[in-house]
Specification:
mainly alpha; 0% strand
Length: 311
């Protein structure tokens, strides 16, 4: 576990640097939104497209890995929705706050995954992380939008709006583009490949800085019961469910390790965006993300160690 912690320590140091840059106004707060948009809409979609489009998936358990990851997500969200009323009563939360709990327990932080994978498993494992993006991102968007529609607006969401919300997600678009390129059988020309490589090299550090800049440590413990439950569900229960699903599907080795990591990272910043757009409790999502990032410095190495994929 010590080795895994030390390997991942640079990730969390960069996150802390991002927090410091914003906290002490080295980079003014309004500028961070533009940096975050750059990472979300340009840099990481470029990485995902490149890794899916150029990888050799012939020897990888892509289907088994994708099914297992999707199953864990469906079970987590389905279980919370089935227990919605007793949870809302026990935690004393309303519909919008419940949707924040769902997002906090199920979504994943793509930036952190793509930063951790090269450090822990090498750059050759990045295509497996891209498989996770292709498998989980569309599903999470569908399910979270449906949950928001049910518990915030008390109505159903139209099929047209649901499709548009999925297609507008840059991770979905880049995943579909990468799959289309794979199916075409074309070889990526050298110049576009070099451009995508250059974008990727600059994206990971910048994205981690934006994660740190988004932390709200002073407010993180407000309304602590649902926040702490989301921390436990996302960082402990979700990776356990992911591991069980992967084992049932016969996924082993590096594919198992990367998929497990996708389940063990904090919730994604996209949860905050969706909460703002559809009337959820965005402040609670920010609190959940803050505490999860802080706790993940210990839980991710522990999960990887207990699963036998790190020392």
């Amino acid at each position: 576990m010590t080795t895994a912690f030390l390997a991942l320590l640079p990730v969390f140091i960069v996150i802390l640097i991002g927090f410091g840059l914003r906290r002490f106004s080295v980079i003014p707060a309004p500028h961070w939104e533009g940096v975050d948009h750059l990472c979300y809409f340009v840099l990481f979609p470029a990485i995902i497209f490149k890794e899916i489009a150029t990888a050799d998936f012939s020897a990888l358990p892509v289907l088994e890995m994708a099914v297992a990851m999707m199953a864990a997500v469906v079970i987590m969200i389905g279980g919370l929705v089935a227990l919605a009323r007793p949870l809302m009563t026990l935690l004393r939360i309303d519909g919008p706050q419940f949707t924040s709990l769902v997002q906090g327990a199920s979504r994943w932080h793509t930036f952190i995954v793509f930063a951790v994978v090269p450090l822990q498993f090498g750059t050759g494992a990045l295509p497996l992380a891209a498989v996770g993006a292709a498998a989980m991102t569309p599903l999470l968007n569908i399910l979270c939008v449906l949950v928001m529609a049910r518990f915030v607006r008390q109505n159903t969401v139209s099929a047209r709006r649901l499709v548009l919300s999925i297609l507008r997600n840059p991770f979905v678009a880049s995943s579909l583009g990468g799959v289309a390129w794979q199916l075409s059988g074309l070889t990526m020309p050298d110049i576009p490949l070099s451009v995508l490589d250059m974008i990727g090299r600059g994206a990971l550090g910048l994205a981690l800085l934006t994660v740190g800049a988004g932390l709200r440590i002073g407010d993180a413990i407000s309304n602590w019961p649902p926040v702490m439950l989301a921390v436990a569900l996302k960082l402990l229960v979700m990776p356990a469910m992911m591991a069980a699903a992967l084992l049932l599907m016969g996924v082993e080795g590096e594919a198992f390790a990367v998929a497990l990591l996708c389940g063990a990272v904090p919730t994604g910043s996209g949860a905050y965006v969706l909460a703002r757009q559809m009337g959820g409790d965005a402040a609670m999502v920010a609190n959940m993300l803050t505490l999860q990032v802080m706790a993940a410095a210990l839980t991710i190495p522990a999960v990887l160690y207990l699963a036998g994929v790190a020392t």
